Amino acid sequence: MPLPKAELHLHVEGTLEPELAFELAARNGVTLPYADTEELRKAYEFEDLQSFLNLYYELMAVLRTEQDFADLANAYLARAAAQGVRHAEIFFDPQAHLARGVSMGTVVEGLWRALGSSEENHGISTKLIMCFLRDESAESALETLRAATPYLDRITGVGLDSAEVGHPPVKFREVYEAAAALGLRRVAHAGEEGPPEYITEALDVLGVERVDHGLRCMEDPALVERLVRERIPLTVCPLSNVRLRTVDTLADHPLPAMLDAGLMCTVNSDDPAYFGGYAGDNFTAVHRTLGLSEDRLRELARNSFLASFLEDDEERRARYLAEVEAYDFL
Ligand SMILES: Nc1ncnc2[nH]cnc12
Ligand SMILES: [Zn+2]
């Protein structure tokens, strides 16, 4: 049995495996510019975040109906369950779908077909986090939030993703204020490719409770000290950082230094279909390559539940935490 964990940084569109992409393409009469899954997999060589995003948005063309989104989420939940994920807070990118003529209702209700029965079907509790694309306008983000208002009972929080550099958090001050007023939780990608200042801005201007990635905080000791003092969780994604060349190799990953500094890190998969591994694979990789001890792995798993938005169900959180403490690595 794998170590129980929560997944807090997972883009559902990034779980689209080549096999499912071709299946949905056939179902929806969409032609992909790749002959087969093998040729598609060969395109998974990324230079940086943008080169990945180009493929990520291109493949979304196959997602058209509620059932497509349900199938996508169910396939993820089944894989996550096999890797010890007990709770998942799942990102989705509505603007990428709205732009293709797929409605907010299709996306949210489709995902909900899987998430609403995830506990029974997969033993995983879930929450949904709606992300704004930071390379789109602030007005578009506000429109997206408006389009989501009929579905807010399904949505726990908002996030910020896509191309980071040149799109500082401050651009989204207004939509984050509006989201907070609606009672939504707030997270944002910051310090993946962007500078440490973006992390500070995400905290101070957007009021985020967790920072997604946050890796580049390590360039600013004062910021590290603050993140430690305020116990701000960072959702680190080791295999993603290698594939997107944020770090040279996994052996160079700053995760051990981050933990030694006292940062509240969690380990997550980001876009597992593209980056070579799901949550458990990321844990295994940091154990094997970075030599993280069993105590450190347990700390990462504990942090994942502590950093999750389970305030509405503290009993459940306590149960998951007890599972982590009782876990026997042998
Ligand atoms: N790692 C990542 N960074 C920014 N935006 C993303 N969208 C999907 N994955 C992402
Ligand atoms: Zn991400």
Fold and architecture overview:
One of its GO terms (molecular function) is adenine deaminase activity. The active site is at residue 192. It holds the Pfam family A_deaminase. It is built from 17 helices and eight strands. Helix 8 (138-148) runs parallel beside helix 9 (173-181). It has helices at residues 18-28, 37-42, 49-59, 66-82, 94-98, 104-115, 118-122, 138-148, 173-181, 196-204, 221-229, 238-243, 255-260, 272-275, 279-290, 294-306, 314-326; strands at residues 5-11, 85-92, 125-133, 157-161, 185-190, 210-213, 233-236, 264-267. It has one domain: Metal-dependent hydrolases (TIM Barrel). It is of the alpha/beta class and 330 residues long. Helix 11 links the parallel strand 6 (210-213) and strand 7. It is globular. It has an eight-stranded parallel β-sheet with strand order 1-2-3-4-5-6-7-8. It is 48% helix and 14% strand. The longest helix is centred in the N-terminal third of the chain and has 17 residues, at 66-82. The model has no long low-confidence stretch (mean pLDDT 98). Bound molecules: adenine (ADE) and zinc ion. Zinc ion binds next to strand 1.
Bound molecules: adenine, zinc ion
Strand order of the largest sheet: 1-2-3-4-5-6-7-8
CATH architecture: Alpha-Beta Barrel
- The average pLDDT score comes to 98
Number of domains: 1
Cα-atom Rg, whole angstroms? Answer: 18 Å
Q: Please trace the helix and strand order, writing H or E for each element.
A: EHHHHEHHHEHEHEHEHEHHEHHHH
Amount of beta strand: 5-15%
CATH class: Alpha Beta
Oligomer: single chain
Please tally the β strands and state the result. Answer: 8
The CATH topology, please? TIM Barrel
CATH H-level name... which superfamily? Metal-dependent hydrolases
Computed structural class:
alpha/beta
Could you list the spans in which at least 5 consecutive residues all have pLDDT below 50?
none
Alpha carbon gap, first and last residue: 10 Å
Q: Helical segment tally?
A: 17
- Could you give a short account of the major beta sheet? 8 strands, parallel
Helix content: 40-55%
